[in-house]
């Protein structure tokens, strides 16, 4: 019999596909399936990287078979610190190192045999690309969304650069792990806060994992409350606080200002001056995360008092670093009875605690911790006896009437610190003129090309290495022509990735970022596949950019990514696969020994695609054996005249149903197991009952094509079929022929339909529930099943907590 020679077959079909791409236009509807483009690092691809790329390719090929014209592009997010750090260490220009890495990545990516359209490649470091990154900045500047501000920013002393809030993780630099400090610097900021409400509201309609939507909405952090004015005793000064709990106002017993609050110097009484200044200085060195998380509360009394506007109580005014300068008004009224941080502070400094909300029916007793729940109002004058939930609104209304407060909404989202004091990024296209001020570089002069420098070493003074290149820095002002200076800060790595998906559809356009025609044809992205680590960074920035580009008429839609899928990580020995952990598995040998098709299938078989999965080198052998059995099945039936029996019809339709259904639920791992099960049944028929008919074999091969494309093409040809297997239409099952299998039934988790399963006539409850559990297994986000309800013929409903 004919042997399965994966190397020969894979080379053969790669050659053929290059001449005859399987992805055809022919007036088909479009489908845009996108991977988060990689940073071309020096260490290349490991099998963990393969996972997402295989997923998106299987999905793209599935869509091709469903009749779509698919755009599946690839490119490079190539600016950023690693290339620059490497340049500093090795003296190799980042552009050169990047080009080599891209070359290597591309060679490795080709091993996956994805249907990438390489004519649409983008690279963020290519001047033809970053011209438009700069152009967007200029448009934002003109719209008042890019502005300069002197401010204390997160500063990494190791990378010697400013960082966005998003790049600080647990108080450490996201890149190098060094504790982040503060530094006062002139920064370029993007006013993403102007889009806060739209970014929040439009999340609703996205077909994204709930987890990611929640992370974004928490990050945007909208809260309703009131701003209330407190008179400082014996001074003109009024202090405005932001509170989400106006209902607790009668319980305010002291106030706290952020150390950076503008009124601190004015209200500090002379005997307290030295102590306050000392405290303010030390607070400025801490990162905001540390300030929020420090268990031990610190603070100093200013010597001044404010007056509680409702009951006239005298409130000592303190300063403490648990109050952040850039949230709300930077000042708070403290209600230790009902707020945990205030409670800790009151205990620490022996300040009074007045309870104003009590659990219904409870008597008076000393509080051992803050009571943060709802209840009934006490010690609150006219509001006594009211439910606290209602008092929130009632007190706020009263404050408005009296002119002491206003209802407000606050967002946690901050404007985006957009400048970096580094070399390897897009130059910010601005000229500083002593006469005209800040002038954007005229559009016809874009791109502002990154010049060559002698040294990539950051200066550490807060200026980028570009500042040292006089002939580049000194330019005539674009407006008045007098001597002026270029901006020497560069953009953060996120700049290019915030809009690259728009460029793929019109890569060579030198007149526009993207033409209306191409944008209409291809955008937005239908399916976006990438890691969840980008939930609040890249995915929020991209949404902001898209909304802005919509507003200035570049694109006609408001959301860039209609559907999002986050693949889990590949782990080995319990840790995320990565070069630094020393646990990487290279795909090269596996491809050689077992073939690309086997590795593709094993990447999917390794576990539910949305969950982290443990890599096992031996696992690929099982998949390889399976492909050999498919090979054997087809070859032993070629040339046999096999009549179509009812049994074969049933199996063929069941196979179509199972594969399609699991694919649609994105259960790629169980799709692979379906293939294995059915193939065993077919082998059994082939051995014991006269064989498997050509239509069934052909169907199996078509269904298998997205997963193991080379083998599918080879077997399609061996079956004597015409053309490429990808010219087929995805098969559709005929329910009437599936015989004992009768109904499709939805499976709900906490009231939302998460999957459908096939329930057979007379199937018992336990078996149905087991199937249902299996179908939603990967969608419980770690919650445990509490309850299962089976309504025969209708639905299975699962409650998980
Ligand atoms: C009084 C109060 C009583 C509060 C109570 C809470 C509970 P979110 O939901 O995060 O918006 N706050 C306001 N500005 C702050 C700042 N700059 N730094 C630190 N804390 C600040 O929380 C708003 C609440 O956080 C506000 O409501 C304020 O404390 C505090 F029983 O005011 B609250
Ligand atoms: Zn000028």
TrEMBL record:
Enzyme class, broadest EC rank: ligase
Binding locations of ATP: 579
GO cellular component, as recorded: cytosol
Catalytic activity: tRNA(Leu) + L-leucine + ATP = L-leucyl-tRNA(Leu) + AMP + diphosphate
Domain (Methionyl/Leucyl tRNA synthetase): residue spans on this chain: 37-178
Domain Aminoacyl-tRNA synthetase class Ia: 413-602
Pfam family, one: tRNA-synt_1g
Gene Ontology molecular functions: aminoacyl-tRNA deacylase activity; ATP binding; leucine-tRNA ligase activity
Gene3D superfamilies in UniProt: 3.10.20.590, HUPs (3.40.50.620), Isoleucyl-tRNA Synthetase, Domain 1 (1.10.730.10)
Family: Belongs to the class-I aminoacyl-tRNA synthetase family.
NCBIfam families named among the record's database cross-references: leuS_bact
Protein name according to UniProt: Leucine--tRNA ligase
Source species taxonomy: Bacteria, Bacillati, Bacillota, Clostridia, Eubacteriales
